[in-house]
Specification:
The complex is a heterotetramer. In chain B, 41% of the residues lie in helices and 15% in strands. In chain B, strand 3 and strand 4 form a beta hairpin. The radius of gyration of chain B is 22 Å and the shape is globular. Classes of the chains: A alpha/beta, B alpha+beta, C mainly alpha, D alpha+beta. At the A-D interface, helix 1, strand 5 and helix 5 of A face strand 1 and strand 5 of D.
Amino acid sequence: MSPSQDETETARRLREAIARQFGRSLHIRTLDTGSCAVCEQEIRLLSAPHYDLHRLGFFFTPAPRHADLLLVTGPAIRAFDVAARKTYEAMPGPKVVVATGACALGGVYPADPFVHGNVGEVLPIDVWIPGCPPSPLALLQGLGVAVGRLAEKTPGLTFIAADPMGSET
Amino acid sequence: MTTEAQAAQGTVTKTVPAADLERVTADLAKTPGARLADMFASDGEVPTLRLVWALESGYLVTETEIEGDQYPALSDVAPAAFVEECEIYEQFGIRPVTGKPLNRLMLPPHAGPARGVPGGRPPGPTLPRLGHPPARPPEDVHAPHTVGGQAFEFPFGPVRQVGAESLYYGLVTSGEEVVDVYLFTWHKHRGVEWRLRGRTPGQAMFFAERAEGLSAVAVGWAFAAAAEAALGVAPPPAAGRTRAVALELERLYNHAAATAALCQATGLTVGQSAAEIALERLLRVNAAAFGHRYLFGVVEPGGATRTPDTDVLRRDLPGAYGELRRAADALLGTNSFVDRLEACGILTAEQARRLGLVGPVARATGIAADARLNASAPQNGNPYVGHPVMVATAEDGDVFARFQVMLAEAAESVRLIGEFLDAGTAAECAALPVKGAAEAGGGSGLGWAESSRGEVLAWVALDEDGRITRARLRPGSVRNWRGFDDACRSQNVFTDIPIIEASFWLTAAGMAR
Amino acid sequence: MNPLEVLYGAGGAWLVAALTGLLAGSWKAGLRASCALSALGGAAATAAGGWSLVYGNTRVVTAGAATITGGPVQLQLTSLAGVFVALLGVVAVAIAWYAPRYHEPSRGTGLYLAAYNVAVLACLGVLAAGGMVTFLVAWETMSLACYLVILRHPRSGETARGAFWFLALSEIGFLLVVAAFVILSAKTHATQLDVIAARGQLVPGGWRAAAYLLALSGFGFKAGLVPLHVWLPEAHPVAPADGSAFLSGVVVKLGAYGIALFAFRLDPVAGSWPGLVTMGAGAVSAAIGILYALRERDIKRFLAFSTIENTGIIVTAFGAAMIFHSYRLFALSAFLLIAGLYHVANHGCYKTLLFLEAGVVEHAAGTRDMDRLGGLVHRLPRSAVIAFIGTLGIAALPPLNGFVSEWLIFQGLFQGFRTGSHLTAILIVLAAATLGLTGGLAIYAFVRGFGIPFLGMPRTRQAADARETGQPVAGPALLAVACAALAVGAPVVLAALSRTARTVTGTSLGPLLLPGKLTVIPAHTDFSAFSPTYLATFLAAACAVPALIYLAGRPRAASVSVPVWDGGMVSFRPRMQYSAMTFSAPTRVTFDALYRPSVSVHRASDDDPAGRSGPVHYEAQVTPVFERYLYRPVVRAVEWLADFVRPLQSGDVNLYLLYVFAMILLAYLLGAV
Amino acid sequence: MPLWFARGLRRGVVTTRYPARPDESAASLPTPPAFRPDRLTREAADRLVAVCPSRALERRDDLLVFDVGACTACGRCARAAPSAVNASEEFELATTDRSALIKKIPIRGDA
């Protein structure tokens, strides 16, 4: 699902607002819309010594009321829509929604009566983090992108291995 | 199918007429050493009810054909059957003759019945089921706080603490102690079993190992073994050992994660950090050895698609495990930690037997049940035949006992990995016959594996061109969540609940599938 | 012209009000007239009481030579009684304003108003009694009238039971009080209170002590000192709201008045032990009262136990005053007396207020059970605000009056070291500590007492349907204003009370209370000082600050209102909120030894082999210690005696003649000796 | 607690410097595939599309449309056509534009 132009525009302005208002302290709430529990494990590891999210000024908060960023995993189970909506609405603006993992990006489950198969169907997504699961490093990069601290590389990537000879370096 | 062929796969299938079902079940339930491991139905022109019993010698599957959407009440004679009774009712509309309520398990309340309840609420949107929908919706599990009583319900979830799965607790509490607990898991029901239908085992594996990502290898193995049994093929021994290495690595990182969760629940941040260092290093070992931190895509029906990097394992695993070992030693020397664990969330062996609990939870009550011990079917690629497992048990049945069992198992896993590496591993796959599944395996089979949460069972039935007609996945979580509320009710106060949850280390994903 | 003459007016008004009520029956206008008269009397009494504080004691007036009382009616308004008279007046006005909207006009209402006004009149009689007989007759009349007030709805056995508890314990208390008076008047050969007080030295020490102890226990029954308190939680719930408001607001206070009367005026006993006994009784009552209040779900029972707590505090203050008096620390003694009287006034106001609001809630929601209420702040906003003011007061939170009086009492107790006796000092500090515990628990109890019924979600249909239809508001509102006035005007009030103290203890604290600077100094300038007025002003300003910030910040913060964060569950249910009993569960666990709770858990999942989870029922019953271990044996003994003497009363005339003969014979013999 | 303090000191720092500096542990992470257009034939492409369990691949006549977001890096495609597919070694894929994750790979293989 590719978002329309104005959506990306609002997302950009939102991120600028985030970067301006939250500076280097941003609070994250996670939301599991039916993941297989692996994305959650990776998210938990973000606060582990190896990655130590806090050094970058990110903090987890259990209360969406205090959260600026919603880290959504899972294929958006329809039975969970109410909770997902409520969580999103409980957050004060400006807020960023990050779709995390292949499930959330529509990779694993096709849309069917059980799942939307894509978090974008339920919540307005600002940042997409691919991977099954996205490793903590990928999550860190995603968070950096979300607050506009890191430049995103994806547009530049072609996924074309240039020359037949050893391009796998 | 021929019983020899089954015996060769460590499974015996018996047909039990509906009339005798209750008696047979009661007898088996009374037999020492017999445990009701699973119960499931499959629809056809006549729906069939299957009970899986774990015996010392292997597994016994009883098949019973159900007429008229009703079967004798089994949960009264074999309480372990209750969860499955509910699930079968939701999925197939078949219910035990008893008038007692059946609880909502997987389909959300607003799924609604196809036919509206007479005089009840109008039918909601119908979710696809494995069979036909129940006549009336199942009862919502809840413990209504009667005003006369002096307890209230503390709602918790489904959106809980950070990095926790969506799961709803109703904690009925008198303000201090926990009076009752009940769970909703339907927030996470993804209809995995429903999805597997019509797929080949190869395609289905992708979803099977995502049914419970933290036991991807165990679930995948059980599913693959079921498919192999159905097709009558056996994975090459080296591939079997590859699976075993992956399985033990999975056990290692899960126990490390459980340790970290225990520390978090007891508020011991330093311990949490130490355990998380171990966890992260173990995950990196997984990635380096198998190319995936959570060992996805290792198991494949017929064998294994990835071979571990033996040198990496030999080089890095001891160090990573050493972290866990040292963290555990320090934890066992920290009274503020141990005191919170002791006499918390106690389960008795009797409860564990009655509810058919599995894995460390059961072993912590002194029951030496372990699917790896099931040495039957060597030619079914069971690598543990050559490498017997020393099962760790404890007696007290409290959180501390579970913790000790986990630590002992971690040590055992490292030893086993060494043995398997010495014996040699490889990424080989036996070719699966696509056509004519019936000749070799009879088109249906049972598979099992011991995840870090306990025994995983899978049962697969294939049609003529090798596509799945019914696949049953039963991760360990399904069984042990059933024991969780009992553990919580055993004289605990509010703040013990997270500790108990961490010591069970279950996933809602596995429960809801 | 003196205050007493103003009181005649009040008394007359109440007498007429009673008669009007009696005649009015269910005639609406008549009932209103009766209430109006009653209010008029209240106003007069307030004026008289207030004046008497400045005026001092009036002379004793003897009205009528021989009357029904079998003795002259002797009246006098002392300024000690003046405090209580003023309180009586305010309460009477508030109730008169409240009653016509609270009681549906019916035959019973007229009778009730008659009984009520008689009770008020009797209270006035007690307070204005200048002679022993007058006092006792008025006292007994008050008890009987209150008995009728409680019996407003005599149908239910509940009511009969509660009323009987009240009457029985009142009578026991009455006998003890009579005994105390008899001792004093026998030894002083006088019935006039002034004379008894003046001839105090004629009474030998032992008799003094006996008289005081009799009075303490006798009035203790009325004041609800533990363990003589059992009638309060029984009688208050069954009485109509204004009736129980009157009981708690005035009648209970008369018990305290009686104690003060004996302790400071009629027979001040030498030595510190009576003070210590009184203080101890007060402190224990305070703690146990509030602890039991925490286990109550019925709002009125809850308030009744809180009344026990507050009279406990008052009596503690009086006891401490007696102690300091015995150590010749007259300033402190006077100071604590003042503080105690001030607390009398405060508690009279806010407890009456709360009982009246309890009546409003009961009318609107049809129940007094906190666990069936909830969310009333949205349905009864005006009552909620008024009740909140009263709650702040009774929870002793600044800046309201409860805080001021309790602060003063603490300041007095903390100066126990001045007695110089280590033992006494320690005991006083112990009492202070007990009051500290009580104060903490009181805040806890009233957070619960206000929060559970008024905040949150309605727990039952009735609570959800509660509507504000013509609720009586004026009466409680008046009391709320009185509370605020007593708080802000504390220095002035205290200055007025200090004159009372002078008439009683002979020491004047006027200069120490510095009303000029609106600052209160607890008797000794070197200890502490505090101005309730400034505090109130400051707090008001402090509350204004965030409001200003909000107003200033509003333009930038675009505020969106979203529902409460509930963890994303489908819907909140009322069963998911703290209930009254679960809120106080921690105290149940902590004070296990006192409550001896019996916990019973019924889980559907326990009985079911498969362990289906189903309805859960959890009960923790508190053992009624005093009823079971103190009163039940007494009652048994009485019944046993009754059985024993029954043979005497066989309906045989000859036997009775024999009794008479024997009696006469006995009398002759005694005469001959 | 002193025990833990000493442990911590002995343990030293394990925290990564990422994103300031690259982290070597990223090398072993599974990454989406990169394709070699010259080795891709339509048949190979169709084979890849068929084998992809997460519907990340789709062939529009001479274009192989690759949705990186949907890819789970399961490696099935690399096993199906080892010559035409190898790991991209790219894990920093987060983007603010979903469409940026849709990659078009030309099919230039001579079939």
